[in-house]
Amino acid sequence: MQPRLQYLKNQFKKPKVIIITAILLALSLWFALCLSRPLFSSPTSFVIDDDAGQLLGASIAADGQWRFPYNDSVPEKFKQCIIAFEDKRFEHHPGFDALAFGRAIRQNIHTGRVTSGGSTLTMQVMRLSTRHKRTILNKIGEIFMALRLEMGYSKKEILAMYASNAPFGSNVIGLDAASWRYFGRGPDKLSWGEMAALAVLPNSPSLVHPGKNRLILLKKRNLLLNRLYKQGIIDSTTAKLAAFEPVPEKPVALPQIAPHLLQRFKADYKNKQQGLTRITTTIKTSLQQQVADILEQHHQVLKANDINNIAAVVLDVETGATLAYAGNISHREDPEMESDVDVVNAPRSPGSTLKPLLYASMIHDGLILPNSLIADVPTQIAGYHPENFDLSYDGAVPASNALSRSLNVPAVKMLQQYKYERFYDMMKKAGVTTLKQPADHYGLSLILGGGENTLWELTGIYAGMARVLNHYDKYRGKYNAADYHHPVYTLAPKEELALEKNGLLDAGSLYYALQAMEEVMRPGDEMLWQQFSSTQRIAWKTGTSFGFRDGWAIGITPKYVVGVWVGNTDGEGRPGLTGINTAAPALFEIFRLLPAARDWFNMPMGEMVKISVCKESGYRAGQYCNNTTEQFVPKTGLKAAACPWHRLVHLSPDEHYQVTGSCELPENMVNKSWFVLPPSMEYYYKTKNYQYHVLPPFKASCGEADYGNPMELIYPKENAKIYVPLESDGKRGRVVFNAAHRQPGIKIFWHLDDKYVGETNTFHQVALNPSAGKHKLTLVDASGNTISTNFEVLDKNK
Known about the structure:
Blueprint: H1 2-12, H2 15-33, E1 46-49, E2 55-59, E3 66-67, H3 76-86, H4 98-111, H5 121-130, H6 136-152, H7 155-165, E4 172-173, H8 175-183, H9 192-199, H10 214-230, H11 236-243, H12 259-272, E5 278-280, H13 285-302, E6 309-316, E7 322-326, H14 355-364, E8 373-376, E9 395-398, H15 399-404, H16 408-418, H17 420-430, H18 439-442, H19 455-474, E10 479-480, E11 499-500, H20 507-518, E12 539-544, E13 550-556, E14 560-567, H21 579-591, E15 608-614, E16 628-634, E17 646-651, E18 670-675, H22 679-688, E19 711-715, E20 720-723, E21 735-741, E22 747-752, E23 755-761, E24 765-768, E25 773-781, E26 786-794
Parallel strand pairs: 1-5, 3-4, 20-26
Antiparallel strand pairs: 1-2, 6-7, 6-14, 8-9, 10-11, 12-13, 13-14, 15-16, 17-18, 19-21, 21-24, 22-23, 22-25, 25-26
Helix pairs in contact: 3-9, 3-10, 5-6, 5-7, 9-10, 10-11, 13-21, 14-16, 14-20, 19-20
């Protein structure tokens, strides 16, 4: 035994043996590692399918080829056709078919030229992977790589690789792309004749394809059908009928049912750089097409006013799934329309669409009750001068009514009380990502569209509000922070519930916000709601940006959220471009496409308490409120302020005058509860609320009680910075200063920088032309009451 071992050792020391051994080891290593990872790395088309797996759209790959991503499913018809035509022993050989290879050699020798390659489907997969030229050496390499491929992959996987990467003529790669490009259908819906036509194409794709040598293609297709018949794969009737089917004349355009969603998917993919470039979306094709038709119909009307763009989103509330995504109209033939721009994901001024969020936030924090009166008077805050859309004022308006009527001044007053910094943070938590500047950059304008939002995120927030209400009973009064999330267009596995005691906004405050949004009698332009009558209960909000650049409408039901945006992508404003006029009609038409919800949002009783509320002020009933009602409010309402405007007043026996102890005996006084608004609020409130009674004046022999100054400056406020307007002829105009007095008909004497400039009674307005610089305005009434304010006139030329 020992001599034999010694002999082997000596043999392996010989150079020839060492070289042979090294070569064998190198070949073994090459064989083990000859397959590249991945086998195919060519860029693929971006493809989106609807929720049923039907094609919505696709884009050409980066290298100019129609190449759909790898599909591990191969239709049985294609399997039978390609095996019968290319590799009849595919299921049995190890990757190399010696019989077929020998036959090919004999044919080539007999004809004197290469007429057959003898390659198996496995070898063709390797040639497609390596892209080597057709040489004898490369053919040998393909044989070994095919053997290695068969060792690592199943026959099904190899066939899928072939089907996904074989050339089908022109710039079409893969069965899926070929099926859609040549027949306008997916491969699972092709007939035997159509599938046979595709199966013969990879054999010589540059010579024969639809649009080129169609007679040769027809002949090859029929020969394959005959072969399938002889092999018993199809019967004679099927073969004859299939032979009568025409072959396609030229490639057809792929569906473009959701082009902007395809564009969105491409952008999202490039950000992530992972996953396949084909996805199954949550889009419902029928609804998508109907929504697109509605937008096109409205566009035909809107374009007469040079309003070129309109977009819409439909969401499922429960999942946040996008059921329809129309990023714009589709008019690629007219570049001026800019219809390629996806407005669903474009930051735009949201107008008033954030007001429901502020209303709910203030109720959530106990700052107001649902119907608390909010001041609606001319307002200037640090140079910011908000105005209502109709340029009128109510003096004071219930918060719910301010929301349903979308009044701007009360919204700014509410944000001033809530603090814009807190609202900014709350918006971020709710899912807003478009506020790129710090809170101070936006200030109070944030509530009127001073920031930017997208239709995508706004509809997501509204869906989150509905989701919280839907889940309140389901989660037994607890909250899931994940209920606020962006919409999705592909469904991901559900995350594990993480319920918390408190939510971003409690269900009670959200309930009242949606109740205000459902209010149907909307004054002013919003009485147009009657045009949109629907069998559905819908909570909805419109928005219009400054300069009439954006019109918004977003609606909520327990099942769906619909959002519509109207405007011009270049930001051009147009007269009449308001949410109620342009976006709301489309919103309600889209809702008519959706199944009506059987139930409405339930009041979250576990979140509510019943308290006594002042009917006139909407605040918690105070000591002197004698007209009250019981109302369910969120628990935070317990810390809301008591009514600040009811007070006890002392009247003369005939109740015509106010009196004090200095002029009337206490036993003769009539003590009465009185609803008294501040002078500026009262000035406007009494003109629209005839049931409001102004306080009687003080009896002449009485000194006024310390109930505060009966006079108030409405404009300008302290430290205001103002401009003097220019007239149409370019000359300097005048500024109208405005005051209110509790006592009707009393005279007010006006002084500018201690110089008398005039007097007023009944209507306290003066028009002045102060020079640029700092000034002091002083008012004195006939009773000697005085108020003054400092302001600065800015020079527009500086």
